Amino acid sequence: MMILVSTQVVTILQFGHMLSIRSQAGYALSMTTHSPAPATRGPADHDVRDQVINAAMEHFAHYGYEKTTVSDLAKSIGFSKAYIYKFFNSKQAIGEVICSNRLSLIMQIVSDSIADAPTASEKVRRLFRSISEAGSDLFFHDRKLYDIAAVASRDQWPSVTAHEARIRQVIQEILLEGREKGEFERKTPLDEATQAIYLTLRPYVNSAQLQYNLDTVQEAVVLLPALILRSLAP
Q: Do 179 and 149 belong together in one domain?
């Protein structure tokens, strides 16, 4: 199809037939078969969400999570507070995205650390070490963003409960592997053993507790898994 448009005449040549449609200047031309898509106003939704998240990370890093308001974020990116609420229903919802991203990063570090461990026992050692090191690194290098994780842990945000569930799943998988290969005893119920190890590890998983255990973390990541492995011996 070839379309020639002027302010007075629109000529459509199609399949060798000429149709002449005359219109007055300013009259809106409509086509019954292919209507043009309506123009999109404002940035795409994902762009707005990204702007809010980036602004939130800057404000949380500078002022802390609890001192930052949605109004502060709206002002920094030039949107109204009401407009931001179209994408996030609360400040916590914004914090959830940031917290979830950080916890996913920690989980990836843990997964990479234990992936090539030759034995289940070594996976236990690497699990303790990788979790404590990742948490400590966040505390010392992103102190204000660590505050978000601490608030999330204290208030048990969904991202935190999901992260803790993933850690328990990893522990259970390691126990199953160790039992199948004869490294670990089989008498203790699997759920009890999983929970006991998780509770031992929890001060280094939970950001709200980690800040009170930083002075013993280097010693703990050696002694605690050693004690656990002795108790798991067949």
A: yes
**What is the per-residue pLDDT across 61-98, written as a single tens digit (0 to 9) for each?**
788 888 888 888 888 888 888 888 988 999 999 999 98
What is the reported pTM? Answer: 0.74
End-to-end alpha carbon distance in the chain? 79
Phi/psi for 6 (5° steps) reads: -130, 180
Give yes or no: residues 57 and 79 share one domain.
yes
At residue 120, the 3 state secondary structure works out as helix
d(CA 154, CA 161): 11
Rounded Cα distance, 14 and 11, in Å: 10
Q: d(Cα 212, Cα 220) in Å, to the nearest integer?
A: 13
Report helix, strand or coil for 49.
helix
Question: Phi, psi (5° rounding) for residue 203?
Answer: -60, -15
Residue in the block written with tokens 């996976």: 123
